[in-house]
Amino acid sequence: MPVLVTINGQPNPPWRINMMPRGDGSFYLYLHGMVRKTSATTVGDRVEVGLWFDPTYRNGPLHPMPDWFRVPLKRTPEARRAWTALSPSRQKEILRYFSGLKSAEARDRNVQRALRVLSGSPGRFMGRSWTGGK
């Protein structure tokens, strides 16, 4: 659930955070390190929380799929099926990661890793272990 958060009135303007469902109807509110730093709080502090629904939230990937990933993905049927089966949030995370790659070498290296794990080979990509394309 997309929300705007302040802790002890900071930061101003409020920080955008997604509350994560717990599975029982309630939500976790994870605080970004910048919010803690700006509000000068640490774990265990008593705080005043300001929390508002974020009506400006846009669902879906914010970063377009780059051609240097789209073309090889299209040519790899197993990887394409696995990509389609990924949750929108996982696709969004991968596209956000790809948008930060600067060099052609980094792009090539990461496309190969992505295609390999999406095709079902076990491996590591984006700091996590993948098995069976997920």
Radius of gyration: 18 Å
Q: State the distance separating the first and last CA atoms.
A: 23 Å
> Major sheet, described briefly?
3 strands, antiparallel
The main sheet orders its strands as 2-1-5
| SSE run | EEEEHEHHHHEE
Number of helices: 5
Q: Please tally the β strands and state the result.
A: 7
Mean pLDDT over the residues: 90
Percent strand: 15-25%
Estimate percent helicity.
25-40%
* Count of folded domains: 2
Structural category is: alpha+beta
Regions with little confidence, pLDDT below 50 for 5+ residues: none
What is the 3D shape?
Answer: elongated
Tell me what you see in this structure.
The protein is α+β, with helices and mostly antiparallel strands. It folds into two domains: 2-53, no CATH class; 67-130, no CATH class. The chain is built from five helices and seven strands. It has helices spanning 33-39, 67-74, 77-85, 88-99, 104-118, and strands spanning 2-7, 10-18, 20-21, 27-28, 49-53, 123-125, 128-130. It has a three-stranded antiparallel sheet with strand order 2-1-5, covered by helices on one side. It has a two-stranded antiparallel sheet with strand order 3-4. Helix 2 runs parallel beside helix 5.
